[in-house]
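Feature request, filed as a ticket because there's no other form

It would be nice if the structure record came with a short human-readable summary line next to the tokens. Right now we just get the raw output. Example of a typical job, pasted below so the devs can see what we mean:
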Amino acid sequence: MTTNPRYNRVLWKLSGEILRGQAAGFDPAVFDRVAAEVKEVQARGVELAVVIGGGNIFRGAAGEKTGIDRGTGDQIGMLATVANGLALRAVLQGHDIAARTQSAIAIPGVVPLFDAPTAIGALENGEVVIFVAGTGNPYFTTDTAAALRGVQVHADALIKGTKVDGVYSADPETNPDAEIFDSLTYQEVLARGLGVMDLSAAALCASQGLEVVVYNARTEGTLGRVLDGQKVGTIIHA
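Raw output as currently delivered:
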């Protein structure tokens, strides 16, 4: 473990699909592993904010297949991220990690609204801040929420935990010849039409110079290696 991490403050985009484990809903073993990784991050002196997805519970785009319109489906998805965020906060606190949640939509008595100065103050005090409910608007993914919150809390990087080892030239699950990239510019991501994140998220990161690291969050200990500056996943830069 390095005492001189690559980043001082990061925004960790954690996919809901990662939290699912082998079945839909919450996998306690996965939550405990996430808590262990958070402790590793804090041991390095890195400030950590989290944007959490809801794909283990509900995906807005998938709702259309059951007759739910996209706007309503996305709202259900936002509430799924709230459930995940509350669960993650409880698990972190159970591991003696100070954590709080902030929401893009008002849910009085459950989770406070997002407030950038309060979030930054909490990060500076060593708390993990978990952002839920995406951007609060339908038709925007949690990738966009991660880019937005990363910029708002002045993160050094957006670290995106996925189920693959980085950014590929094609879907590695269907194309065994897909090439993995060590690094890319935002211009290359857009020109190649790579599905690493949606266009609004990529454009925001590019305009604000927010570096992105895409890595496999299912491999234990990888987040710490990213912070140590080891060659892990794909780095996207301006």
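Something like this underneath would help us a lot:
The chain has one domain: 9-237.
The beta strands are 9-14, 47-52, 99-103, 128-132, 157-162, 183-185, 211-216, 234-237.
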